[in-house]
Amino acid sequence: MKRRDFLITSAAALSFLLSGCAIGDRVVEEPLTPKSNPPRKSVVYVLKTERREEAVSKLMQNFSDFEGSTVGLKANYNSADPFPASTHPKTLSAIVDVLKEQKAEVFMAERSGMGNTSAVLKTMGILDLAREKGFTVIDLDSYDGWVLHQPEDSHWKKGYPFADIFLTVDSVIQTCCLKTHRFGGHFTMSLKNSVGMVARRWKGHDYMSELHTSPHMRKMIAEINVSYSPKIVIMDAIKGFSHGGPERGTVIEPGLMIASNDRVAIDAVGVAILRIHGTTPEVSKGSVFEQEQIARAIEIGLSSGEFEIIPANDDAEKICSEIEAVLWG
Predict the structure, then answer these.
(1) What is the C-alpha separation between 295 and 303, in angstroms, rounded?
(2) 135: which of 61, 125, 153, 308 is 20 to 30 A away, CA to CA?
(3) Dist CA 272 CA 297 (whole Å)
C-alpha cells in the first residue's frame, strides 16, 4: 500500500490491510453515546488569514502529533463545485503535508451526495493531488465495508451503515466548509459533513432518502456523530455561503481558518459567523445552542457545550469578540 500513490479500493482489502481482518457487515447495537468523552471545556482556535497553507500548519500544532500513525481524512466533496461549496485543494494539500511530515499513512474516504464520487474527485483534481502527495483515496460509492450502527433512542428507523475505515485508523481528521443548507439541514459544517461517512443505499434501504424526508433530519445528522470522534476539525471559513448551499449560494468572505477537536463547538462558532454576516431566518432564530443539530449533539454527549475561543493571531481578536457576543452576549 505504501508504495502506491493512491488507490480507490474496496473495504475488504482496506480493512485487511489496516486491522488484519474485514469488519464490514457487523451490527453494533449500543446506547446513543459518543465514542469518547469530550473535554469539559473545549478550545476553538480562530485565525484571521488568507494563507491556507500557513494557517493549517499553525492550527495543527495545537493538537497531538500523528507520528507514524494511520489517519482517516474526511473532506467535503459533496459535489464538483468549487470552494466554498467544496474543500479547497490547498487546504486538503496542507493537511496532508503536515501528516506526511510526521510519516503518517493517510486515507481520504469520501461519498458525494450530489454526484458520482469518483467523477467528483476527478473533476476537483483530488486524484491528481493524491498521486502527487502519495495518499490513498477511497470511493465510498463502491465501498463494501459498512458497519450497521443501531444506537438506542436514535431517530434512524433501521440504524445507519457507517464506513469502517473511520473505525480502523488510528485517528480521524475532518475538514469542513462554512455553509447554509437549503435542503433542511439549515447549515452544513462539521456535524453535517459526517453524513458522507454513511452509505447512500445499503441492503435495499435508501438511507439518504430516509434522512432528507424525515422531520427529525437535523437530530439524525447529530446522531451519526456518535460513531466516531475526530482528533481535529479544521473549518475553512476564508469564504462561505450565508444563504443557499450546499453547492451554491450567497458568498461571504470572513477570512478565517478555525480548528478544534470539538465539532459541536466549531459548528456553534460557524453559526455565529453566519449571523454576523447576515444569514437565513432558520440559522438566525433563537440561541445558537437551540439550533437543532447543536442542541441534539449536546444532549447526546458529543460536547459539554462549554468552550473557549482563542484568537490564533492578533488580527483575529476583533472577530473572536464578535463571535463571543453572538454566542453568550
Answers:
(1) 10
(2) 61
(3) 17
pLDDT digits (tens, 9 = 90+) for 48-61: 999 999 999 999 99
Question: Residue 45 is part of which domain span?
Answer: 11-328
The Cα 257–Cα 176 span in angstroms is 11
Query: Does 91 map to a domain?
Result: yes
The grid coordinates of residue 174 equal 475532518
Is residue 237 a contact partner of residue 23, using CB atoms and an 8 Å limit? no
Q: At residue 205, what are phi and psi to the nearest 5 degrees?
A: -110, 135
Confirm whether 2 is domain-assigned. no
Residue 297 contacts residue 38 (beta carbons within 8 Å): no
Phi, psi for residue 228 in degrees, rounded to 5: -155, 165
Longest dimension (CA), the chain: 53
CA Rg, the chain, in Å? 18
For residue 264, being part of any structural domain is answered with: yes
**320 touches 309 (CB < 8 A):** yes
| Spatial contact of 221 and 192, defined as CB atoms under 8 Å apart | yes
Taking residue 294's Cβ as centre, other Cβ atoms within 10 Å add up to 27
CATH number at residue 243: 3.40.50
- Alpha helical stretches, state H, the chain: 11-19, 52-60, 89-101, 117-123, 126-133, 165-168, 190-193, 207-213, 217-224, 263-277, 281-284, 292-299, 317-328
Q: Does residue 252 sit in helix, strand or coil?
A: strand
* Least confident window among 123-127, 152-156, 186-190: 152-156
d(CA 314, CA 248): 32
Number of domains comprising the chain: 1
Return the closest-CA partner of residue 83 out of 269, 241, 233.
Answer: 241
Predicted confidence at residue 152, as pLDDT, reads 85
Q: Phi/psi class of residue 280: alpha, beta or left (left: φ > 0; alpha: ψ in -120 to 50)?
A: beta
Residue 104 Cα distances to 21, 99, 288, angstroms: 21, 5, 36
**Does residue 5 lie within any of the structural domains?**
no
